[in-house]
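Holo model, zinc ion. Inputs:
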Amino acid sequence: MFPEINFPRAGAALVALLCCALTACGGSGGGKGADGPGTAGGRKAATPQAPAPSPSVRASAAPTLPPGPGGATPVFSHGRRDGGKRVALTFDADMTSDQGPRAARGEHFDNPALIETLRRLKVPATVFMTGRWAEQYPGQAKSIGGDPLFEVASHSYSHHAFTTPCYGLPTVPRAEARADVERAFTAFRRAGVEHIVPYFRFPGGCHDDGVLKELGPAKVTAVQWDVVSGDAFAKQAGPVASQVISQVKPGSVVVMHCTRSAAPTTEEAVRRIVPELRAKGYEFVRVSDLVAGH
Ligand SMILES: [Zn+2]
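Output:
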């Protein structure tokens, strides 16, 4: 989630309230990644099995950027501006590690209608999924990851912050940062996700040189964005669609969300965005397509 640009006109108090709602601050306060699988609609989440291989095993399947100085994790924000009218829609499937009780009470952190719309409109997309989301919705995670239209990347396991402060998110201890990133990939494999790409999006986008160096051995490319949709907590789809349509440039990476709880208008916004950008000559691609041409 990206409150820094989602709420540019909101008052500080409102920002704090929305961040709180999105990140479950003041929730059950469960420890980082310590809570077990929850249930949604009576459906039991995946049960951890045997250890899975390192995410770097899959790295050869998707293009990555070369590491930075000292082996630091490289950061990708957009593709080439002279590479044609290509744009990548990205959807953060947010669920924080302590939001299981809220899901059990009926709160929806998924958005099946959004995924169906992307399929119907044949829009490729990259889903940045938290490991906790994959545990909560293993069937959907597997379905998304088994569809050649989509690729699944890590949005951390816990959706906790990797630098402080970060909009009130609880913080992952620096020494556990790499394990949190990799735990998401492990959760994907346990859910049966096939099309995993070695990309990582920091919760809130919050990072610094130190954490990039810390994550170097994970062999992921950090993916930021250059277009903010503003879909988090939006009440109307129109302004979200207008913002995206007006800001997209060749090579853009658009950040949106795949969670009804925090972004209820995203599916409708996508229905408006896709035909308009196509009419302007844009082709929808995945992040890996933009990284490949970088
Ligand atoms: Zn997020």
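The longest helix spans residues 177-191. The two ends are 25 Å apart (CA to CA).
Archived with the compound record.
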